[in-house]
Amino acid sequence: MDIDEPEIHENSDEDMAVGPSSNKKDDKEHNFWKNNSNEIKANPERFGIEESSMELLRVFYNRFFPYKTYCYWLNYNNIEMNKSFQNREFNFVKPGNEEVYIRYLSFDTIEEFKNEVLRVCPKKIDIGAVFTAKPKEKKSLKLSALKPVEKELVFDIDMDDYDEFRTCCSGATICEKCWQLIAVAIKILSAALREDFGFKHLLWVYSGRRGVHCWVCDERARKLNDDERKSIASYLGVIKGGAQQTKKVHLYKNSIHPSINRAHKIIEKYFEQVILEDQEVLKDKQEWTKVLDCIPDDNVRHRLNDNWSDNPSKHSIEKWDNLLEELNSSAKTTKNQKKADSLQICKIEIMLQYLYPRLDEAVSTKMNHLLKSPFCVHPITGRVCVPIILEECENFNPMTVPTISSLYNEINDYDRRNVKNDRERNLHDYEKTSLRPYIKYFEKFIQNVLKETLAKNRALNQTSMEF
Amino acid sequence: MFSSTDTNNKRALASSNIRGDRYEVKRHQKYPHALNFYSVPPTEEITIDEFEGFAFDRLQVLKALEGAILRNKSEEDIKDIDKKLSLPLHSDDAAKAYPLEEERRKDHISHFILRLAYSRTVDLRNWFLKYECALFKLRFIRENKEERLAFLNNENIRWKNLSQAERELMREKFTKEESNACSITYDDELFEIDFEKVPDLVAKRAVYIKEGKAYVPTTEQISLVMYEFRQRLAKALELASKSFITLRNERIMPMLDEIIKYDGRTQTTNNYSLIDNPNADNLAEHFPLCMQHLYQNLCEKHHLKHFARIQFNLFLKGIGLTVEEALAFWRKSFSEIDEAKFLKDYAYNIRHNYGLEGKRQDYKPLNCMSIISSYRPNSGEIHGCPFREFSQSNLSAKLVQMGVRDEEHIKEILNLTEGEHYQIACTKYFEITRGLSDKNNDNVIIGTIEHPNEYLNASVSNEKNRMKMNNKDKMVNK
Lengths: 467, 478
Known about the structure:
The structure holds 2 protein chains of 2 kinds.
Chain A: H1 32-35, H2 49-63, H3 67-75, H4 83-86, E1 88-93, E2 101-105, H5 110-120, E3 124-131, E4 148-150, E5 153-158, H6 176-196, E6 202-206, E7 211-216, H7 219-222, H8 226-236, H9 258-278, H10 285-292, H11 298-310, H12 316-333, H13 337-355, H14 361-365, E8 371-372, E9 387-388, H15 404-417, H16 436-466
Antiparallel strand pairs in A: 1-2, 1-3, 3-4, 3-8, 5-7, 6-7, 6-9
Helix pairs in contact in A: 2-15, 3-16, 6-9, 9-13, 10-11, 11-12, 12-13
Chain B: H1 7-15, H2 48-70, H3 75-78, H4 81-84, H5 100-117, H6 122-142, H7 145-154, E1 160-161, H8 164-173, H9 176-181, E2 190-194, H10 199-203, E3 208-210, E4 213-217, H11 221-246, H12 252-261, H13 289-301, H14 306-319, H15 323-333, H16 339-353, H17 368-373, H18 386-389, H19 392-401, H20 407-418, H21 422-433, H22 452-477
Antiparallel strand pairs in B: 1-2, 2-4, 3-4
Helix pairs in contact in B: 1-11, 2-5, 2-6, 5-12, 6-11, 15-16, 19-20, 20-21
């Protein structure tokens, strides 16, 4: 790719101290605009804060965004651009403080897509469905001619949904401890999608702040209609009930679905570390009350509450052992079989309530739903929405994800160090930075997806030859 | 019905048959089963009376089912809904001797008439599909196991069945709890199906799913059968809609039109003019929201556009306005339009509605179904059903304006419209504004509104009753 070196302007540190969109609640969070302020050089006379971040975004779109792989992905073919890409709806959010959406965009070629991205410099890109016609021609089409026909099956897990018990952070903030909640969710969901539904191509993407998205790219998944999507979301939705509901998981002792059993086995591996050690959900009364509320027996609840109130300094792990003993002994002594069953199953219910994935169903059930694209930049944190390697999801650290300003610095450092080094001129810009492993992983993932369509097309050609 | 001269119709109905090669066209000498997948169209002759009667009787059943389902009636409640109305369909093992052959013939023919009538638009097709499925389902459940099996065999419906050995492998793998959750009993059959075909079972986590295949026990067979039924009927409806375009038959078309307009409970010949004095000013208070909206616009702007005019004029006709009265009313209302233009542009259409111009068809007042689904308003047009055409915020503002003040009520109505239950929303609106909604009383006070004129009549008679009650109270107090 031959891209002109972007013009960079000088700036003083002072003006950069507070970002325009930084949220006061986010003070725990690694604030992109704040932390990197002294490294951005722009002219305060000519540019305000927004403009300098715009410059960084422009550099990102100019030098780092993986246009080719990205477009081949959505095209599901790297030979010629087809309907899969050309009839795909994109949505750009214009740069600036206000949320100005440009909807029903679509592009015929990679070049057209790239040029438009560079021209608009969107602070967010959303991907929609593949339609029966080109979305950009919406105005000249009959309403009935533009219908969604295909889209990846997508899932959205947001840290927000864990706030009712998360003790390490709250709201938009995230740390390595609470990332583990997401990591376990990723494992459970991936296992279900692979083993139960037989999907192979799961692209997990960090949303840039406190959540993750999953793009299921298998052809069978892309062709699901809304009813089928709804049925999968419902199959995977175990946690039910809103803020007014304390107990959110309901199981029957004599009837546990294999997928729940598998999730339970995964959770067993992480529950102690993630929930009892890291989150310490039994640390003080306010927290442990939430756990006790899930127990269907007043006496058990009271006994545990009294016990822990007398020894509040006991560690959560010890308290959990108390809870299990209580449940067991009460289940044994009660003569009511129903009650015994509900006490025995209660342990699993609590574990699932804390670690089973909390899905935003609306995102998954509508084919027509827009979802933030991989490799766009989170407008507040400045982090790139990079793919997460499934096998290493526990070690993924959202705090160290490249931001548009860290990439900017990296590439400048590299260029300064290697001014006279001709040998590496052939390297892509991303390869000179910490973005490299993410794009490499993305490329490999897409290659696997394309291989399958290629094989399928070949088989199709062969059968058509036979006639 | 399809007398030999009506070759067009015969072709239309025959081509709505699914893939002729797989389901060979055979003459129905008799109906071996009560259940019917309706793959083969009827080819006998029937009288016009039968044609109409059969269609309306089936429609009544479908409408009743719609009402029952939207009101969340239990399966037990709707079990015999077709038998209670005039479309009985008894099994072979029924205790009494029913005219089985006759019942099945009527079921068969009536289905195909409605299929053709309802193939016209996407909305009509979806409606028909939904309630035909519901009807088939309750009938399938009603049959005993042997009869179901015989029927499926006859229709050549089979699914991949796991062998005893495969089932044994599964038994070893699963815990007792897991088998229970997937309703697997290893001694009975287990079908292997793509999970897409049983979305209801997937959603409930009621079956075992592995690598894209769902393992469906015989107890959940109904889901598979319904999938087959729905797919076939959906395809057949698409085909029927295509042949509908080529169907130009002067005898059949008007009858099919009548069927669509039929509102399910009142006969088409029903006269809506129950109102003593149609010109009374306060009658507008009893208008349903759709007509209120048109009337208010007419008063403010002294004009209504084409479809709004038709909708409102036929409504007035239903109230009992004569054509002279209607012409006088419109003349007065279109006060900013001069006499010549009125006569030239508008009077014709008004007279046309009354069957005095053109092909002299005596148009019936539009029912809710037509207002909701045909001729949806474009930008600038205000006709249609407000519960469907208004945005949520506009509708809630309108409701407040019309005197619905309770937040709960507004929310309830908005939820219904969001779920596309426009007529139920309208009924709810009626109950609320007429002081008939009682939270502690879940009984249905009035049936679902099916027609704007029915709404008006219900409102008027409701007020009459209230006045009577009040008078009675006064008498007692004296």
